[in-house]
Amino acid sequence: MAYEYMTLEKRGRTAIITFCRPEVRNQITNEVMAELGSIVSELEDDRELRAVIITATGKAFAAGADLNMLLSFSVIEERECSAFGIEVCRAIENSQKVYICALNGYAFGGGLELAMACDIRIASEKAIMGLPETKVGIIPGYGGTQRLSRLVGFGRAKEILLTGRNVDAAEAERIGLVNYLAPADKVLERALEEAELLSKNAPIAMGLAKQVMLSDATTGQAAAAQMQASALAIAYSSDDAKEGMRAFLERRTPEFKNK
User: With the C-alpha atoms ordered 83, 203, 182, 146, is the resulting torsion angle positive or negative?
Assistant: First the structure.
């Protein structure tokens, strides 16, 4: 089956999903998430698969949401966008398959949130990542506020989220945001090696292990995710959000007025 925004390849017991819009830095849109959600659902029914790798072509894994798209949304549309993205990320997180993110380049906003929904992250030594949403007047929309703190600790996550600063590959590995680093041209190869290890394990046992670990770590996550979608809608409705996104697109410093 042909897809518009990504490709799907199967190698033995491993599937590889590759974002293929390098000309727009693999930006995340509703259409991209809908296609990804459809593929995730399709792969869940494949009993032969053990692992799924998500990667991308070009210098970026995913540069985050298309701000022009966000500026065109009503508050209700923005909340629906956030809720749908949360749903796709949770489908990956709750999957019986093991998801490996091969971060071939930089990952910002929704791109990093998608990576954090995966079970294992392998990043290029040149990768840069971050959640810069507060710089344009909004907050992460796909569950990143919860997942980041589970990965790197509450205090460090709060600092990264509130400053919106970039995290380079070395720091990301040191703080636990990614599991391994690899040379830029070896990221997919390293992910395939990890998938090969997983292919030798019992799929039911791996799926159950994921469920048990997730249930312990995410008590109340569903409620928190819904709160996040509502909080993003509130932030999105502010004048500051429109100013922040326009300023980014116009390559100027935003003038926030706290309204």
Answer: positive
Residue 257 CB neighbour total at 10 angstroms: 9
Rounded to the nearest 10°, the torsion over CA 222, 195, 178, 236 is -40
pLDDT computed for residue 218 by the predictor: 60
| Catalytic, out of 35, 133, 173, 194 | 133
| Residue partners of 73: CB distance under 8 A and separation at least 6 | 81, 236
Which residue, among 138, 144, 141, has the nearest Cα to 116 in the 3D structure? 144
C-alpha closest to that of 173 among 126, 221, 218: 126
Q: What does the DSSP assignment read for 97-164?
A: SEEEEEE-SEEETHHHHHHHHSSEEEEETT-EEE--GGGGT----SSHHHHHHHHH-HHHHHHHHHH-
CATH topology of domain 1-182+202-259: 2-enoyl-CoA Hydratase; Chain A, domain 1 (3.90.226)
Catalytic, 189? Answer no
Which residues touch 220 (CB under 8 Å, ≥6 apart)? none
User: Given CA atoms 71, 237, 30, 150 in this order, what sign does their dihedral have?
Assistant: positive
Measured at the CA of 32, the angle between CA 27 and CA 34, to 5 degrees, comes to 150
125 an active-site residue? no
pTM for the full predicted model = 0.88
Give the chain's residues under pLDDT 70.
216-225, 227
78, 113, 173, 194: which is the annotated catalytic residue? 113
CB atoms under 10 Å from CB of 229, counted, come to 21
